[in-house]
Every structure is written in C-alpha cells, then in structure tokens.
Amino acid sequence: MSWGSAMLSALRWLSDLANTYFVGLVLVASATALIRPGAYTWIAPYISPLLGVIMLGMGLTLQPGDFRRLAERPRDVAIGAVAQWVVMPVAAYALTIALSLPPELAIGVVLVGAAPGGTASNVMAYLGKGDVALSVAITTVTTLAAPLVMPAWVVVLAGEQLQVGFMDLFVNILQIVFIPVVFGFALRLALDRYAPSAAEVGLDVFPLVSVVTIVAIVAAVVGLNVDTILGAGVAAVSAVVLHNAIGLGTGYGTGRLAGMSPDRVRTTTFEVGLQNSGLAAALALSFFSPAAALPPALFSVWHNITGPLLASYFSRGEDAAVGTAPADD
C-alpha cells in the first residue's frame, strides 16, 4: 500500500470513528468547557468562518442530480420545506412564551427555529431507512433559501428585541451559508471533471472536519455560558427538548397526512425536527450575545441524541405500517 493510500485509509477510519462517537465527543468537550472555559472560549471569534467551512463541505457533497430531483419530486420537497419553515419557527416562539424565557435565551430558541435543515438530517435519513435523495433535496432548498427565510422569521418573531435589521442578517447568512455551499458545489463539479481522486479525498476528509468543528463550536458556546447554564440551564434545556420533539412529531404527522410512503415519512420527520443549530449559534454570537448561543448549542447536542435513537427505531421497521402507497410526484 502506498503512502497516499495509507493516509486516505487513515482519514476514512478517523471520519468513521468521529461520526460514531460524535455525541460522546460533544459531551466530553462540553463538560471540559464547564470546568475550564478558557480552553475553548478563544474559538468564539472564529465560529462564523468555521461554519462556512462546514457549509463548503456540504456543497462538496452536492451533485447536479440532487438539483434534478427538485424537479422530479416537487410535491414532497415542497411539503417538507414548508413544514420546516412554518412548524419550527412558530413552535420556537410559542415555547419562549410558554416557558417565559429570558430575552437572550428566547432569541436563541427563535434562531434555532428559523434555521434551515442541517446535514444531520441527511445522515439520519440514511441510517433510518428514509429517502436520502428527498432528504438532500429538502435540505438543499431550505439552505439556499436561508438568507431570505431566516432573517424574515427572526425579524417577525423577535423584532421588538432586535438591534439588527433584515439586511444585516441576510448578508451574514449569505456569507456563511449560501456562498460557501455554491462554491463547494462548483468545486465538486471541477474536481469530478479534472481530478476525481481529489474529490474522493475531499469527501473523506470533510466529515471529520465537520465533526471537529461542531464539537469546537458547542464547547466554545458552553464555555462562554457557564454562569447562564448554572442559572437558567433548566429553562433552556426544556425549550430545546420540547422544540425538537415538536419538530420530529409534526414532521412525522405531516408525512402521514400527506400520504407519503413510509421512507418519505421518515425523511420528513428528520427534515423538520433537525436544524442547522451551528448556523443559529454563529448568528447569535455575531449579532446578539453568548447567552443567545446557548439554546443552539444545546440543540446541537440534543438532536444528535434523539436523531440516532429515532433512526435506530425506524431501521428496525416498527413503523412499516405507516403511510400509504408512494405518492405521485
């Protein structure tokens, strides 16, 4: 085996290991951040560019076929995207009222609700025997629409508490999400055409980069919020747990009411319930406060616990009776 092949095998092994123990890594880093916050708080100024790197990696996973699927299955893509755009922001706002959350935590919950889908939903759709192509299509639509949809919801739901305008949020999300994704897609096209082996290496490396980056972001936010966690942690955790449960439950119900096939019901469940909490945390730190970034960080931990558990349940086929025959696109 050549040195290059050995390195590639090692990267694949590390990526698989990081994905397998992702939740454990997040919990260990978070616990460490509570004890020694200074070990991670220095990361805070770099969270936005780090998230841009993750979105670049997402762009690298996209291929022209993913966009063709948007035209092939518009009905289910539209249902999944609209469900996420409506359910999660409205649920977030309702929870901030019901739990009487402090303003800074409330903004963090709203940011999570307004965020697009994350790549975690694609992974869970795969593990839970969902329709992965549909999952990628919905995530792509919500991500590319994020510069418009996300600031619109934040302004509507948290307008009285904002000292930042729609355009500020729009430009920031454009820089963090849209441009890296488009650049990653263009880079993938070029690599597939001129250097396919490099494209393969990139796909092996970026899962590891994504895991390390998300762990660092969550730990940094925890380190910045040690006092808040000790004082208002129960309220924030309650909001996150309920928000995720509402998203997963409503996504499941939406898929069934729409008459989707069982695999698409599972996919809609994950697409609605799992958010790009890293983006929400980055915006919270950029425009609001460290406390506002706490709910997104907690959501990142929690949905990476409930997601695999639900995927495991789905993969065993207990829900095989749900849904109807595959709906026409």
Distance between the termini: 47 Å
Oligomer: single chain
**Total count of helical runs of at least 4 residues:** 15
Number of domains: 1
State the name of the first-level CATH class: Mainly Alpha
Radius of gyration: 19 Å
CATH domain fold name: Na+/H+ antiporter like fold
Name the helix and strand elements from N-terminus to C-terminus, one letter apiece: HHHHHHHHHHHHHHH
The computed structural class is: mainly alpha
Task: Indicate the low-confidence ranges by residue numbers.
Answer: 320-329
Q: State the shape.
A: globular
Counting DSSP E segments of at least 2 residues, the number of strands comes to: 0
Biggest beta-sheet profile: none
Secondary structure elements and pairings:
Layout (H helix, E strand, L loop, with lengths): L2 H18 L1 H14 L2 H4 L5 H15 L2 H9 L1 H25 L4 H12 L4 H9 L4 H27 L7 H29 L1 H29 L1 H32 L4 H12 L3 H11 L6 H22 L14
Helix pairs in contact: 1-11, 2-11, 4-10, 4-11, 5-9, 6-7, 6-9, 6-12, 6-13, 7-9, 7-14, 7-15, 8-9, 8-13, 8-15, 9-10, 9-13, 10-11, 11-15, 12-13, 12-15, 14-15
